[in-house]
């Protein structure tokens, strides 16, 4: 039984104020929690404390500004005392496709000096199985506090994994409304973590253990990756056969038990393009389909580059317009974006005049960005990599007498005949 005073956790320390941590911090602050946000990026800290978001997410600036003005949210460079510590740091892949645990390990170490008996520590970062147990060991080494129930004794620290389940562009709604998996290092930790999420989540709470929670999130994303890989492979097949992939998929999906996804430039984002490799690294001999799907999706950008180069070979000095850099439509998120890979490879090939359009960014540290109209006005080849809303209205005359590669289906509902 959880006592009322154990539910009165009002001081929250959120480590990592990116696409996951910042929206959560703003929502908690709007619900009356006192949120101490932590980020190692000085620009992010300064921007947040001015009441602005350093990421693009619909309506986030509004709720963030109010949270900062009320004093319920303030960003800092280091953690502080709190009742609940939430880790929302990245878990990328290394160059050899192994989980890079540096950020989770450092974040766990950083909160150790501030942990006190009764604190709740939550890992939201998507991580390989066993990460929460690894965090428990770090806390034991760096404090004199017990983590996890042993010999029937109540633990000093409650520790759980509650993997984020959000979609960029819909984060503020999904942080509250999505069902959440909650897996503690022991049952008391699961109960305490669930009690905390019930204070602001309206979706169902699905209670389990930490290792199952970690694996469930990875399996969810691997499932999506495998299905996207099938769609991308169908696109390659359609190209080989000289048929319209969008018509092909539309027809196949008329079957009552078929639902082929839309192919694209590859797979990007901080989850689907990364997480399946964690499962492959954990159990390489039994994850052959997951590995193959990753290889299919990772190869798609290189296939697109080769097709562009084939078209460009028919011109003396090809002018190529690449439309979109983000990993999905109508956001500014470039993490693991296949469009970035394509742009980089094309420029490095020296193929010609490559013009890049990304309406959701003001600038890019590597590429010079061009406005949409001047990019396509005298382009020989127009490649639509991301189905941003700005690109869906350029059908017709602007694209006459140009080679058009719509790799993401931006024009699928009103194709050029």
Describe this structure in words.
The chain is α/β, with parallel strands linked by helices and 417 residues long. The protein has helices spanning 4-7, 21-30, 42-49, 60-69, 102-111, 131-142, 171-177, 187-198, 210-241, 245-252, 275-282, 288-312, 338-349, 372-376, and strands spanning 11-15, 34-38, 73-76, 84-87, 120-123, 158-161, 180-184, 205-209, 318-323, 352-357, 381-384, 403-406. It has an eight-stranded mixed β-sheet, sandwiched between helices. Strands 10-9-11-12 form a four-stranded parallel β-sheet. Strand 9 (318-323), helix 13 and strand 10 form a beta-alpha-beta unit. Helix 9 (210-241) crosses helix 10 (245-252). The longest helix has 32 residues, at 210-241. The radius of gyration is 24 Å and the shape is globular. The N and C termini lie far apart (66 Å). 42% of the residues are buried. Residues 1-7 have low confidence and may be disordered.
CATH topology-level name of the largest domain: Rossmann fold
**Tertiary shape:** globular
Number of strands: 12
Output the strand order for the largest sheet. 3-2-1-4-5-6-7-8
CATH C-level class of the largest domain is Alpha Beta
Round the Cα radius of gyration to an integer and report it: 24 Å
Could you describe the largest sheet, including whether it forms a barrel? 8 strands, mixed
Could you give the distance between the termini?
66 Å
Q: What's the order of the H and E elements?
A: HEHEHHEEHEHEHEHEHHHHEHEHEE
Q: Helicity range of the residues?
A: 25-40%
Count of DSSP-assigned helices: 14
User: What is the CATH H-level superfamily of the largest domain?
Assistant: NAD(P)-binding Rossmann-like Domain
Q: Based on the structure given, which CATH architecture of the largest domain is correct?
A: 3-Layer(aba) Sandwich
Would you tell me the structural class of the helices and strands?
A: alpha/beta
| Spans where pLDDT lies below 50 across 5 or more residues | 1-7
The whole-number mean of residue pLDDT values reads 93
Number of domains: 2
Strand content: 5-15%
């Amino acid at each position: 039984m959880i006592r009322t005073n154990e539910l009165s956790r009002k001081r929250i320390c959120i480590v990592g104020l990116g696409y996951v941590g910042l929206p959560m911090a703003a929502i908690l602050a709007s619900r009356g929690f006192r949120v101490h946000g932590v980020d190692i990026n000085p620009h992010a800290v300064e921007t947040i404390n001015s009441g602005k978001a350093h990421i693009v997410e619909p309506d986030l600036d509004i709720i963030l500004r109010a949270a900062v003005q009320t004093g319920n949210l303030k960003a800092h460079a280091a953690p502080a005392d709190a009742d609940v510590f939430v880790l929302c740091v990245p878990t990328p892949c290394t160059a050899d496709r192994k989980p890079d645990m540096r950020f989770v390990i450092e974040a766990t170490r950083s909160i150790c000096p501030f942990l006190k008996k009764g604190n709740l520590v939550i890992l939201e970062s998507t991580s390989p199985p066993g990460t929460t147990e690894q965090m428990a060991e770090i806390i034991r080494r760096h404090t004199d506090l017990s983590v996890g129930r042993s010999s029937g004794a109540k633990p000093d620290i409650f520790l759980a994994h509650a993997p984020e389940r959000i979609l960029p562009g819909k984060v503020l709604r999904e942080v509250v409304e999505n069902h959440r998996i909650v897996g503690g290092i022991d049952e008391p930790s699961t109960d305490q973590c669930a009690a905390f999420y019930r204070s602001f989540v309206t979706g169902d709470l699905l209670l389990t253990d930490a290792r199952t929670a970690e694996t469930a999130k990875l399996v969810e994303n691997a499932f999506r990756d495998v299905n996207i890989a099938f769609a991308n492979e169908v696109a390659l097949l359609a190209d080989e056969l000289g048929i319209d992939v969008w018509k092909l998929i539309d027809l196949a999906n008329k079957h009552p038990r078929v639902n082929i996804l839309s192919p694209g430039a590859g797979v990007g984002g901080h989850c689907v393009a990364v997480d399946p490799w964690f499962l492959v690294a954990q159990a390489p001999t039994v994850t052959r389909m997951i590995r193959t799907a990753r290889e299919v999706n990772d190869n798609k950008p290189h296939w697109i580059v080769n097709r562009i180069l084939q078209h460009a070979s028919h011109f003396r000095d090809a002018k190529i317009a690449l439309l979109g850099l983000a990993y999905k439509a109508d956001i500014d998120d470039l993490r693991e974006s296949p469009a970035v890979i394509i742009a980089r490879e094309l420029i490095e090939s020296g193929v010609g005049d490559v013009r890049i359009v990304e309406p959701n960014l003001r600038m890019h540290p590597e590429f010079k960005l061009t406005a949409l109209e001047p990019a396509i006005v005298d382009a020989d080849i127009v490649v639509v990599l991301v189905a941003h809303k700005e690109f869906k209205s350029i059908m017709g005359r602007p694209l006459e007498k140009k080679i058009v590669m719509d790799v993401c289906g931006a024009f699928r509902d009103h194709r050029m005949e």
